[in-house]
Design a protein that fits this description.
Elements (H helix, E strand, L loop, with lengths): L19 E6 L2 E6 L10 H15 L6 E6 L3 E3 L4 H8 L2 H20 L3 E6 L2 E3 L1 H7 L3 E5 L3 E3 L13 H9 L1 H10 L2 E3 H7 L4 E3 L4 H13 L3 H14 L4 H18 L1 H12 L8
């Protein structure tokens, strides 16, 4: 079929093809999964397109925050279950699919940019794994979020079992995995799978406003804050506390934005951070 163009004229590469749209507005980029007729499935081609867009965005110093959302009635209902039948019969191809998905999520998680999942409608299975690699999650009131793999005899293979337990605890993760249940936006908020809920008709504007608020901060500061949390989770508390002390000392004494924020406060002006 014919390719869908990126929104506007600011596509980053030819990788922005059918099923994936990109739009940049100032320091905020929006990636939209655009196969609403199939609830935005995360098949092999879509995973590769997303990875290429994420890789291209990493080279854009003007982009600080990336919104990830889905067109139509769903964020993403997960993988292409029909396609798995043939994929499972080719172990090498299936391993390649899993490796590509892991690579995409690792790039997002380790990026210096802030990733926000904007959950409209269903977010299930692979969609949940995509959410879990983001830094911030906002949801529409009508969102439904869950693992759902076992409903079809499957298992999460793109980090779902590991990131979910770290996000909401072992018992919460096992409940969602073992029951296959979808939780509503309020329950997702209570569990820690979402940071904020908006009425469905305010989700677009509300999420964009939050992104723009974050994008006013120091690019170096945004990257550093994300790094501190992610790096700290890789070890025990005492190791993390020592890492934080050393990192913050280095940031405060060598990063110009740290001093610029203080001078702007003193002088009662807007800070002029490095881009």
């Amino acid at each position: 079929g014919s390719d869908y163009p990126a929104l506007g004229t600011d596509s980053l590469s030819d990788a922005v093809k059918r099923g994936v749209l990109l739009h940049c507005d100032g320091a905020v980029a929006t990636i939209t999964l655009n196969r609403p007729e199939k609830l935005n499935p995360l098949d092999g081609a879509t995973i590769i397109q997303l990875r290429d867009v994420v890789a291209d965005l990493e080279g854009r110093s003007d982009i600080l925050v990336v919104r990830l959302t889905g067109a139509g009635k769903a964020f993403s209902a997960g993988g292409d279950l029909g396609g798995y039948i043939s994929l499972y019969q080719s172990p090498d191809d299936f391993r390649g699919f899993l490796e590509n998905f892991h690579d995409l999520l690792g790039r997002m998680e380790n990026s210096g940019k802030i990733y926000m999942a904007v959950i409209n409608g269903a977010c299930v299975a692979g969609g949940l794994e995509l959410l879990l690699a983001c830094d911030v999650v906002v949801a529409g009131a009508g969102a439904r979020i869950g693992d759902g793999h076992l409903n079809f005899g499957q298992l999460p293979g793109a980090g779902g079992s590991q990131r979910l337990a770290r996000a909401i605890g072992a018992m919460g993760a096992k409940f969602l995995m073992l029951s296959g249940a979808l939780v509503d936006a309020e329950e997702a908020l209570r569990l820690g799978l979402a940071n904020r809920i908006f009425p469905d008709d305010e989700l677009e504007a509300g999420s964009m406003a939050l992104c723009q608020t974050m994008a006013k901060h120091s690019p170096a500061g945004l990257k550093a804050a994300k790094h501190l949390v992610n790096e700290g989770l890789r070890g025990d508390l005492q190791t993390g506390l020592r890492m934080e002390l050393e990192y913050v000392h280095n940031y405060a004494t060598t990063e110009p934005d740290a001093m610029e924020g203080l001078l702007a406060f003193r002088d009662k002006r807007q800070p002029d951070y490095r881009k």
